[in-house]
Design brief:
single chain, eight-stranded mixed beta sheet, 276 residues, Rossmann fold, alpha/beta
Length: 276
């Protein structure tokens, strides 16, 4: 489910592609606010992890305490598109942290660097399951310490493209806190490795949403069945569906962005979040 072919087909993001992503405000303009949107505040933060400081963006309603959501971005990392998505989710009443998963090797955004995607593919090699679990533990601990977070509620973890597997790894790292996971056009959810994400599902608690791109499914049609079997065997409720959109359809700055299917995925995410 998502390999180098679909990465090449759909994630080749040029400087022109990111012209719309110059600010969180410009991204927010592309993402409709909910009818009952609450006032939110967003800010850049730095979080201490076992492997050094990590950049992140935190958005939350201006008052009250709310369930927390962790967002793992796609291969092009933390940038205005994901900051805008975090702010939009906060408008629905959640305290949201979008993170720089490449903090060991670079600061973000890095989309204007020459061969940014090639560099990201190299940086990706440092993101082992163990590294992601260390990060997830630090990020979720930081969220629980925020005054805008209701630590009595569970935490949800979402991920896009390469962030998809990180949702499962996060749930395994902090099973007592993660109560929902959502993967959108996830890359590498089913592999031959002993620690393949689908082999870790038995350690997941709560519920799951797995939204699969049609071209990922075309290349690996058995992956959805392996995931369904894994979640069913683990007795973890999961909504697993193939969307009629290509890999990368959710972020508003992606060449594959499909507004109709992105909104469908967003609406299903909001349903899932009500369970945490």
């Amino acid at each position: 489910m998502c390999d180098e072919h679909t990465d090449t087909d759909n994630a080749r993001l040029s400087r022109r592609d990111f012209a719309l992503g110059a600010s969180v405000a410009s991204m927010a303009a592309l993402l409709p606010s909910p009818a009952n949107a609450v006032p939110v505040t967003g800010r850049a933060v730095t979080i201490t992890t076992p492997d050094g400081p990590a950049q992140a963006y935190y958005a939350a309603p201006r008052s009250g305490r709310h369930p927390a959501v962790l967002i793992w971005p796609d291969i092009m990392g933390l940038r205005p598109a994901f900051e805008g998505m975090a702010s939009r989710l906060a408008e629905s009443g959640y305290a949201v942290l979008a993170v720089n998963q490449f903090h060991r090797t670079t600061r973000t955004p890095f989309t204007d660097l020459p061969d940014a995607r090639g560099k990201a593919m190299e940086w990706r090699k440092t993101l082992t399951s163990a590294a992601i679990m260390r990060d997830a533990t630090a990020f979720l601990r930081w969220l629980d310490q925020q005054p805008g977070v209701d630590a009595r509620r569970g935490i949800a973890v979402t991920g896009y493209c390469m962030g998809g597997p990180m949702t499962i790894q996060s749930a395994v790292a902090v099973p007592a806190r993660v109560r929902a996971i959502a993967s959108f056009h996830g890359a590498g959810l089913v592999t031959d490795a002993p620690d393949s994400p689908h082999r870790l599902v038995s350690k997941v608690r709560g519920r799951a949403l797995i939204a699969i791109a049609q071209n990922d499914d075309a290349r690996a049609p058995g992956d959805k069945d392996a995931l369904r079997t894994a979640f069913a065997t683990a007795n973890v409720p999961a909504e697993i569906a193939v969307y009629p959109a290509n890999h990368g359809w959710c972020p508003p700055d992606s060449p594959a962005y499909d507004k109709v299917q992105a909104e469908r995925a967003w609406s299903r995410l909001l349903v899932l979040l009500k369970t945490v």
